[in-house]
Amino acid sequence: MQRRYRIDKGIKYLLFFSAIVSIIIVFLIFFFIFQSSLPAFQQIGLRNILLETTWRPTNGQYGILAMIVGSVMVTFMAIVMGVPLALGAAIFLAEVAPRAVQNVFRSAIQLLAGIPSVVYGLFGMVVLVPIVRRIPVPGNSGYGLLSAAIVLAVMILPTITSVTEDALRAVPRSYKEASLALGATHWQTIIHVMIPAAKSGIIAALILGVGRAIGETMAMIMVIGNSVIMPTPLTDNPLTIFLRQARTLTGNIAVEINYATGLHESMLFATGVVLFILIMIINASAHLILRNGERS
Amino acid sequence: MNRAELKASSAVQSAAQKQPNRSNLKQRHLSQKFAFGALWVGGALVMLILLVVVGYVITNGIREVTWEFLTTAPRGGLSGEGGISTTIVSTVYLIGLTIVIATPLGIGAAIFLTEYAGETSVGSKFLRSLINLVHFGVETLAGIPSIIFGLFGFALFVSVLHFGFSLLSAGLAGACLVLPTIIRTTEESLLTVPMNYREASLALGATKWQTIYQVVLPAAIPGIITGIILSVARVISETAVFYVTLGGSARMPTSIFSSGRTLALHLYYLAMDTNAFDKAMATGAVLIISIILINLIIDFVSSKLTAGLRENQ
Which domains does chain A have, with CATH numbers? Predict the structure, then answer.
């Protein structure tokens, strides 16, 4: 009897320990990344890091503005391309598709989500880049923002689709029934009742998609070209800006961390800090929106 | 509402009723048809994207996937020659290491969060705020991009702890990466275990831990297994974390301090450093096929789970 209860107590502390491990890990991640980036922030200065566009570690120039712009641009383009399709797919899955199609479609989305990012990157390099290269613009290598954004749009599709589908399914059945009983068609019900009711979930889905897009690393390295320049149009036509090569914040870390030393290495951690803060802002806003939705 | 207002409103109503004598139902049905047509096209487009990506990689890659390809070591370096045997071994080792580290911690955390959260005995306020904090931690971990885990693993395990670029460093970083997945899925499956199971066991005189270990956990097994398999899939497809912690040696790993490369990492090196796109494609095909297999296993386990739930009710 005594022994059983002593074991019980002991196990409780063990479980308690494993529960706080995730807090400890979060704390350690914060600590190590911020601590390692400290020399960079102290010696180069926040202004020079965030507002300079020249990244030349051998020359002591460590501006990451071009990469911030690269990350933001490619994410924005991916959202513009991917979101309409993802929302359509979610509505299709939740409301329109017959059950048999739903099952196949859901497995397809699951598979799309599971494909390794390097496979998307490889597909981009082998299939997409040669197609983009055919656009007759001088200086167009095929690698660049457009190819990267297309790859990224496909990669964020499953996240946005499945979270949006969940949000649509969470709308109380009575809302839909009431609307149909008033004589609205199914489509009117979707547009005027279901989507407004699922609004907060849908916005959260979009924000999660943005987070995934900003955090994607390997596929971006493989198709975006990785040169650190402020994206500008290649010719007089402003649209050719999308054919420009770029580099993302994530790519900057991955490409250079294995050989960087000293201040350069510290600067890569600083790039991580900027990325970290960007993601935290994005996630926190998703969290807030979801919670507000639950309350109402 | 007084009588005059009532009259006015009924007048408005009758006017409104007169208007749609010409019903717009047909038009509304037409717009529904167009909209649903567009949705079907969108759905078909998503399927098409999947088929093109998966189909292209598999049809172009599968030709290279021979027994020899699977069992020869890659040459490594700038040469794209050779097969993928050592990368398969590294991947399996890394999966094992990650799961061994993350599973006990993840399951333990999930048990604490679900089974002890309602406990009101000592310092319940402290406990509640702690559990909120843990939930916050899990959510934060789930949202952090993988390259940050890589950076962290590089700083702590590779540099500070001097594990170097090794399976151990990568496994520890990978465990941090999959921990939220295991905690969440285990938590969900523990929550589906009916309360009266616990009550019955406690009423028979079992301690809390006996109840958890012998009653609650067995009932939650399929969900826990799903979480573990999801983590396996994550380790197989993850690249960024291991790119900065595993080192990328193409040699056969001999201990947990050996450097190595996973299949996904090997694909990356082939595509970026060599011209062996056919071998990269073949590696991609192997990756996709293993992910498909894993998805099938998950579907199988979760169908077991729903069947089990039905039995419970």
Answer: 2-295 (1.10.3720.10)
